[in-house]
Amino acid sequence: MRILVTGGAGFIGANFVTHLLSTAAIERVVVVDALTYAGNLENLAGAHRDPRFRFVKGSILDRGLVEDLLAAEDIGVVAHFAAESHVDRSIRGPEAFIETNVTGTLRVLEAARAHLNARPDKKDSFRFLHVSTDEVFGTLGPTDPKFSEDTPYSPNSPYAASKAASDHLVRAWHETYGLNTLISNCSNNYGPLQFPEKLIPLIIHNALAGKSLPIYGDGQQIRDWLYVGDHCSALATIIARGKPGETYAVGGNSERANLDVVGTICDLLDHHRPRNSGSYRDQIAFVADRPGHDRRYAIDASKLERELGWKPERNFSSGIEATVLWYLNNGEWVNNVTSGAYRDWVAEQYA
Ligand code: NAD
Ligand code: TYD
User: Fold this and answer.
1) What residues have CB less than 8 Å from 96, skipping those under 6 apart?
2) Max alpha carbon distance in the chain (Å)?
3) Residues 6+ apart with CB under 8 A from 350
4) Which fold has domain 2-194+226-253+296-314?
């Protein structure tokens, strides 16, 4: 397999590249990434030592660049991760989300279409995997059935709306142009390399820095947490065995309220890196809620299990402990990504 990974220097993309390179069947992995604030070449340090790997700094908005890479590298699979991914940033500045997530996806689709028009012999075996989110489905009440592939779209944040729009483009490119697309709608990921603007790494980082642990609203919002390594194995499975034109819901079957997640992190830190006195729980602070805050996400991933044989390996308690230990052991990575622009974001968001 020769694969182009867009956004491969970000959290999930970089974990996916490592996952791919651990497989002998992979011939070539090319990453194209614009290295925005969320992209970090350090995430690909291991990959750089592998002769099958190539990194190209560039934007998915540059259709010509993507098309050239598809041809020059004889790419058979596109795994499209590149996006603006943080809901709070989308609330403060939605434009970048439309540009990258909607127009950017359009450009990658058009690059793939032009490439396959020039190489019709490749069209049947080509796969375009669009990595999307469960947030496109909106929010659930406490007793609603979980999201599945049949749930109607109902996005509530600018981020979710931009991802929903990109999903619709991908679907249309399948129906109209016969592009072999696959869409995954996954729940919240956590694990190594996640940028500390998202809940779990932010809480670990703030706790260790002696700062307050901000809980939006009452902290009873529920997310269905999936360890990033399990998301990567789901994506590899979908590429290998997914049916073109289909979508797959991916989740960890681990619904947790935010306040419980934060409490669990505090307990793990109390055990592995105790404070001089008291508990990290003393740092918890309730702050103003996020506008349009979705109350509950939960995924029914039974199609993926039934049709493609995928199941997550980690449960939340083992995944969260592995994650806390990773952040404790990778203080230098955290220091590098939390300097400069990160501080400006935190100052603005939590003022
Ligand atoms: P991330 O923000 O950590 O990484 C995004 C990457 O995309 C960065 O490396 C960034 O430099 C790159 N990028 C941004 N704009 C670009 C452009 N114009 N051209 C090329 N590269 C660009 O995001 P993530 O958490 O790794 O998420 C990856 C994908 O998975 C996204 O599409 C997101 O919507 C989806 N997703 C994320 C989650 C989650 O919990 N994090 C869950 C489900 C789906
Ligand atoms: P986040 O990690 O931003 O993911 P998403 O919004 O995509 O689900 O947030 C996860 C949950 O944690 C969400 O309900 C918002 C909440 N949250 C806080 O309570 N405090 C924070 O500082 C952050 C960043 C998130």
Assistant:
1) 84, 89
2) 67
3) 214, 287
4) Rossmann fold (3.40.50)
Q: How far is the CA of 315 from the centre of ligand 1 (A)?
A: 24
- pTM strictly above 0.85: yes
* Ligand 2 pocket, residue 221 CB under 6 Å: yes
For atom 41 of ligand 1, the residue with the nearest CA is 189
What amino acid positions are annotated as catalytic residues?
134-135, 159
Looking from the CA of residue 135, the nearest atom of ligand 1 is 43
Ligand located closest to 90 CA: 2
Domains in the chain: boundaries: 2-194+226-253+296-314
Task: Give the neighbor-by-neighbor strand order of the sheet with 247-250.
Answer: 53-57, 28-33, 2-6, 77-80, 127-133, 181-186, 247-250
291: alpha, beta or left? (left if phi > 0; alpha if psi -120 to 50): beta
Ligand 2, residues 136, 223, 320: which to mutate, most atoms within 8 A of Cβ?
223
Is 258's C-beta closer than 6 angstroms to any atom of ligand 2?
yes
* pLDDT per residue as tens, the chain (351 positions): 999 999 999 999 999 999 999 998 999 999 999 999 999 999 999 999 999 999 999 999 999 999 999 999 999 999 999 999 999 999 999 999 999 999 999 999 999 999 999 999 999 999 999 999 999 999 999 999 999 999 999 999 999 999 999 999 999 999 999 999 999 999 999 999 999 999 999 999 999 999 999 999 999 999 999 999 999 999 999 999 999 999 999 999 999 999 999 999 999 999 999 999 999 999 999 999 999 999 999 999 999 999 999 999 999 999 999 999 999 999 999 999 998 889 889 989 998
